[in-house]
Amino acid sequence: MAIVIYTKEDRINISKAKLEKNPWDSSYVVNIKRKMKNEKRLIQGEVCCYCLRDTLGEGGFALHLEHILPKGVFGIYIFDLANIAVSCVRCNMEIKRRDYSFLDENLHECAKNKWSHKVYDSKNYAIVHPNLDSAREHIDIVSLRVDGKKFCFYKKKTKKGEATFRYFKLKQMEIDDLDILQGISVSNPGGAVPEIVERIFDEATDSESGNKVIGDTHQFMDTIQDR
Ligand SMILES: [Zn+2]
């Protein structure tokens, strides 16, 4: 999947950066990171690698180069392109942070200090790995535009898709979207959204694009209330 590759010059700069205390923050890799971010965004189709939400229109600051295995813990994979993806701030900073509980427990200690190819085996991850898995085979997202407002919901296709949905608290994102549509400012974590969105998903995916535009909010809410 990954088409980003390092040039000879990049490799030299990375070697120099690795001699510093904080290689990722080294001035030797500023341009490499910029190039990597732009290319990863294109490869990912301008969506967050975890929640799959559209990131187009968001400034570079809102999107982070994300280490799937956190760089503070698994430093030896810090420049491995397979360990890097682009994620939204919510998934990276609010949810995942330095956690790696999704990695097979047997690798937790042994892979930290000695480079292991096993960290690049999809089977060792409980959640969708942005570079090792094809995300849409596990979880899909459908975006609806209602009265100019965007509404997204998810279809979990596999156990890994389910785990990703839970891990990144994606149900809460569906609820928040629905609340905004209804003009509710306070979110309701217990809201009964999933069944509704499951049905709408099936209708929406019957259309060719997988995306659906519904005329206005009232029409959309009527559709929901009819169910
Ligand atoms: Zn995200």
Overall description:
The chain has 227 residues and is α+β, with helices and mostly antiparallel strands. It has two domains: 8-99, no CATH class; 137-225, no CATH class. The chain is 35% helix and 13% strand. The chain is built from eight helices and five strands. Strand 3 (139-146) and strand 4 form a beta hairpin.
Show the helix and strand layout.
Layout: H1 8-18, H2 30-43, E1 63-67, E2 84-88, H3 89-96, H4 110-113, E3 139-146, E4 149-156, H5 159-167, H6 170-182, H7 194-204, E5 212-214, H8 217-225
Parallel strand pairs: 3-5
Antiparallel strand pairs: 1-2, 3-4
This protein binds zinc ion.
Features of this protein?
single chain; 227 residues; alpha+beta; 3-stranded mixed sheet; two-stranded antiparallel ribbon; 35% helix; 13% strand; binds zinc ion
